[in-house]
Specification:
The protein has 174 residues and is mainly α. Helix content is 65%, strand content 0%. Pfam families: MHC2-interact, MHCassoc_trimer.
Length: 174
C-alpha cells in the first residue's frame, strides 16, 4: 500500500507542477498580447492628438516652411515687435531666433517660455528709454530691474581694472 500511495502522491504532485507551468505560460502569453495592444492604443492616441491640434489651427494658416522663409528673409529694419502679438504670427519655438545677436537669442528664449511676452520699442537715448520703462513697468518689476542693473554694474566694474590702482614702477638707470 505504501508504494501505491507514493506513486499516487508523486503523480498528483507532477500533475500540479505541470498545471502551474502551463498557467505561467498562459499568463506570459496574455501579458505579451496585452503589451502589443497597449502599443497600438498609444499610437492611436498620438494620432488623434495630432489630428485635434490640426483641427484647432486656423484653416487659412500658411505652411511652416513658407512662413519660416518669409520671416528669415525680412530685413531687420522692417521687423517690429507689436504690443500685442498677432494671431497669425508663427510661434517662436518653431521659427527659431531671428539672428545670432545676443538680444535676439534672449528674446527667442523668453518667447519660448512665454509666447505672450511683449517687448516695448525703445528708440530714444538711454535715460529716456529707462524713464519710459519705469512708466510702463509695475513697481515690483521696476525694483527687480533696478536690482539687476546694480548687479550688472558691479559685474562690469569687476571685469575692468581700476585705472588709479595701477602702480607706475620707475625705470632704473642702467
Amino acid at each position: 500500500r505504501s508504494l501505491f500511495g507514493r506513486r499516487a502522491a508523486l503523480s498528483a504532485l507532477s500533475i500540479l507542477v505541470a498545471l502551474l507551468i502551463v498557467g505561467q505560460a498562459v499568463t506570459v502569453y496574455f501579458v505579451y498580447q496585452q503589451g502589443g495592444q497597449i502599443d497600438k492604443l498609444t499610437k492611436t492616441s498620438q494620432t488623434l492628438q495630432l489630428q485635434a491640434l490640426q483641427n484647432k489651427m486656423p484653416s487659412n494658416a500658411k505652411p511652416v516652411s513658407k512662413m519660416r522663409m518669409a520671416m528669415v528673409n525680412m530685413p531687420m529694419a522692417m521687423r517690429n515687435l507689436p504690443l500685442s502679438p498677432p494671431s497669425d504670427r508663427m510661434p517662436m519655438d518653431i521659427m527659431g531666433p531671428v539672428s545670432n545677436k545676443t538680444e535676439d537669442q534672449v528674446k527667442h528664449l523668453l518667447l519660448q517660455a512665454d509666447p505672450q511676452k511683449m517687448f516695448p520699442e525703445l528708440k530714444d537715448n538711454l535715460l529716456d528709454n529707462l524713464k519710459h520703462l519705469k512708466k510702463s513697468m509695475t513697481d515690483v518689476d521696476w525694483k527687480s530691474f533696478e536690482s539687476w542693473m546694480h548687479k550688472w554694474l558691479l559685474f562690469e566694474l569687476a571685469k575692468k581694472p581700476q585705472k588709479n590702482e595701477r602702480k607706475v614702477i620707475p625705470a632704473q638707470k642702467g
